[in-house]
Design brief:
Order of helices and strands of chain A: EHEHHEHEHHEHHEHHEEHHHHEHHEEEHH
Low-confidence stretches of chain A: 401-409
Largest sheet of chain A: 6 strands, parallel
CATH architecture of the largest domain in chain A: 3-Layer(aba) Sandwich
CATH class of the largest domain in chain A: Alpha Beta
CATH topology of the largest domain in chain A: Rossmann fold
Number of helices of chain A: 18
CATH superfamily of the largest domain in chain A: Crotonobetainyl-coa:carnitine coa-transferase, domain 1
Helix content of chain A: 40-55%
Strand order of the largest sheet of chain A: 3-2-1-4-5-6
Strand content of chain A: 15-25%
Structural class of chain A: alpha/beta
Distance between the termini of chain A: 22 Å
Mean pLDDT of chain A: 94
Oligomer: homodimer
Amino acid sequence: MTGALDGIRVLDFTRVFAGPAATQLLGDLGADVIKVEEPGRGDEGRVLGSTKEMLKKYGGMSPSFVAFNRNKRSIALDLGNPAGRRTAFELAAKSDVVVHNFRLGAMERWGLGYEAIKAANPRVIYCEFFAYGKQGPLAHLGANDLALQGHGGLMSMTGEPDRPPVRVGTAAIDLHGGLAMVCAILAALFHRERTGEGQAVEASLLRSSAHLMSYFYTEYWLDGTIRKPMGTANHLSVPNQAFPTADGSVIIIAPSDEMWHRCATALDAERLARPEYKTIFDRQHRREEVIAAISSVTRRLTRQEVFDRLAPVKVNVAKVNSVGEAADDEQLAAIGGVVEFSFDGQKVKSVAAPFKLEGTPTKVESAPPMLGADTETILLELGIGRDEIAARREQGAFGKAKLPAGGNR
Amino acid sequence: MTGALDGIRVLDFTRVFAGPAATQLLGDLGADVIKVEEPGRGDEGRVLGSTKEMLKKYGGMSPSFVAFNRNKRSIALDLGNPAGRRTAFELAAKSDVVVHNFRLGAMERWGLGYEAIKAANPRVIYCEFFAYGKQGPLAHLGANDLALQGHGGLMSMTGEPDRPPVRVGTAAIDLHGGLAMVCAILAALFHRERTGEGQAVEASLLRSSAHLMSYFYTEYWLDGTIRKPMGTANHLSVPNQAFPTADGSVIIIAPSDEMWHRCATALDAERLARPEYKTIFDRQHRREEVIAAISSVTRRLTRQEVFDRLAPVKVNVAKVNSVGEAADDEQLAAIGGVVEFSFDGQKVKSVAAPFKLEGTPTKVESAPPMLGADTETILLELGIGRDEIAARREQGAFGKAKLPAGGNR
């Protein structure tokens, strides 16, 4: 079976998280993704957060680079060099999609802005990703996921009551922004398929963060409510949070009175199935008391025991897993959520796309590329001859470093 | 200008967050979204988390319903009733996209499963959203955003060191899953436009959570690392976290030695621009000491003062805003991130799509609909005559409640 984006070429100038996560999904869908990297150094994500041991073991690649750069080929181009920029322009002129997350104005200074590319390639979909967007007082301010967790208000709602705010443990705003880029690119490709028209599209950390926070902004705009952190609890109902057990925490959610009755009976009828806890209003009213009563029961059980009592009676229950338990939990593999590729003879596991297409399945065809591994292949495909490649190399288009001789795949 | 999805009809059976957030974006892109709701009750999201005052003020709509249901029309159909199911089937047979998030098997029991719809409408894109997916030991377990925060490991990485885990303050997994649905639907529409083929697509809370956690799973699979909560800090570099000020917290991120030098000099050269903090290794090695030194400086300043010192010297800085400060911050409005619609004569603000399409701009054409407001209009468009509508009403297709006479728009 073919992929939904077979035959679509994506020229990808993005670095670190949001952009690479987005273009990896385009590659999963079948697009030919060409990753443009700075010679010698490459995507900063190649080394971010890695140890020296890791870097040796996986060809210089950090875990996050491995996680977000499969199904891509790498070309090393020095955008500070005229021959490098000319090569990038020629590639952009022959691509369906161009994506970048440079700071505002950088692509224009290199002659790679939308207007320039569009003049040579009117059908191009040109996707930009910014921190705070292109207009307004913060347009030129640098930022990352953490900065937007603070700016957007997510941090102010995350943490224990009356203690300092904490960050969300993963780069949720970055990755959500990555999916927003994919949405924008796919919508524009669909429009182009119907009309022949290309266009510029945009996403940003700020838009991503605002979308994640949208229902709290709406609530504030409607009636002035400003939510505060509640630990693992929720203002919606009781119980609706994590509870301690003998070996970790477990989440129990029983909003309706019927579900609560099943929950209380299955856990400890005597302590919990009491008339004064019967309705959702009773439980909200006696919130502290109900939580303490449930905790006193769950503390004597293991996570698994709580799970085994509640799941069969259709109460929403989940274990609070560590990263390792979550990654290895058999459910994820059972739905095809784990993919695998070979790197240097080793099998490496990674997480599949967050969606499944029955008719045009996503696929994993290659491991993340070594820096510049495909430079020559890509240039030859583009129709640039070997002599011309050699001349551009002399001119510094591919950096001072020696061009790797072959691919890694 | 037209929308990218003009002329596309979406039949939307989803309730609460992920699904409605997804179909709202399809509506923003120009699709005609028909929201199928249970007569009398409607989407549970209509009342979720609302107060009695709010419900009176906004026509019975909760803030989250207002946030995720613009650009839709509502039809009330009783899927427990044969005439209601027949009507749903007729609508599905004439739709480009059908979306639902019922439990596994429910649509099939109603005769509305993919195979049945496909037989009448081979070009249909049929999108399902599940908790843990369709296969595997947890396929039948109920879940929500919080359950997956626990199951997927996100909670285990969120919180203060050596204190209990906390939840992410917003439903990030739900909303990320919503964008994954939009990606899948758009990719399938693009494929259909090129080939004429429809297909079934799928997303789930589990896939969404795994995608958000993917680089931590990869790290664990590569070398066994299991990350733990670090408050607002990050293992990557120092400083890279929130610091206390006289009036709240501020985030400072200065990973490179040059940026740190500018940061230290701008804040308090004497205390911070010291040789023993000079390199990233020094600062990691003296993590506690460096954080204490920065905190002692920031505590004497306001958030705005720290921001005003660091932003001009290009250090990544952000205020930790409350929900209200974040919603009203002028930057979001400056990039078109705030939209407005009229409801009952009141202007209501909401958050725009997380992406921008220059050639086919997203638009807000209508406020969230009252339950069943468009039932009759939609049926007439479908070609069902007034007598037939009356007959089906008699048969209970639209529930026992009286069908509202007109729309709210």
